[in-house]
Amino acid sequence: MAERGAQVVSRVAALLRTLSASAGAPVPTARAAALTGLTRPTAHRLLSGLAAEGLVDRDPDHGWLLGPEAYILGAVAAERYDITALAAEAVREVARLTGESAFLSARRGDETVCLLREEGSFPLRSHVLYEGIRFPLGVASAGLAILAMSPAVEREAYLARTDLTDTWGASHGIVPLRERLEVARRTGYVVNPGLIVEGSWGMAAAIFDASGRPSWALSATGVEARFAPPRQAEIGRVLLEQAHAVGRLIADRGAARRTR
Q: How many angstroms separate the CA atoms of 187 and 189, rounded?
């Protein structure tokens, strides 16, 4: 019975994450089922139950959306986990100083979710990332940066239980992935050379929480021609400086809370 209950919780969580990743667009039942690996009747039953609790809303013509109770829960949790206000200036600075699109992403379990986006001045842009999109750790540059800076035991446990090649191809196999992580640990930042969409490059640096864990990342994305090796060092320096600045703000906030 306990195992069955845990399965229901896992399915509900998967549905809520799917709606969260839709960037505010309604998700039809059939698509929600496909994205979560559920049958359509099961997805509909669970979504209807969530709607009865106010956690999701239904648009009769288009599908399901997160509901008002989800907003309230998120607002309460934001007091502890949300750093968007602290990081907004750093995201703007990355965009201003590099000219690329800049992002803040957060770790959520074995994934990263994009929270903020700021466009740079360069007219050609990558459209891989947007607020709400999720990627497994080790795929987008933000997840690579967070994984690279995670404790070795935690990093190895993730690599042991994860196979990214089925969805993301051979370039995300264990050997090339380990090589990217090792380079990132040496330089402090990640370079993702168009591994999600050809020609769309990304770089990222991890942001550490008050206990020293990599929980967020700043990233910059753009077209390949803008990420030649000499410029990678320049962008990497900007990302590291801004990530450290946000980390100091997080540490200060933690210290202030402890003195209340």
A: 6
- What span, in angstroms and rounded, lies between the C-alpha atoms of 188 and 204? 9
Strand blocks (E) in 99-189: 101-108, 111-118, 134-136
C-beta separation of 43 from 15 below 8 A: yes
CATH of the domain at 57: 1.10.10.10
Of 242, 76, 230, 67, the C-alpha closest to 145 is 242
User: Same structural domain for residues 126 and 252?
Assistant: yes
The string over 245-255, giving b where at least 16 C-beta atoms fall within 10 Å of a residue's C-beta and e elsewhere, is: bbbebbeeeee
Q: Which residues contact 155 (CB under 8 A, 6 or more apart)?
A: 147, 148, 181
Size (the chain), residues:
260
pLDDT in tens, 215-255: 999 999 999 999 999 999 999 999 999 999 999 999 888 77
What is the value of pTM for the model shown?
A: 0.72
Domain count within the chain: 2
- Residue the block writes with tokens 């839709």: 22
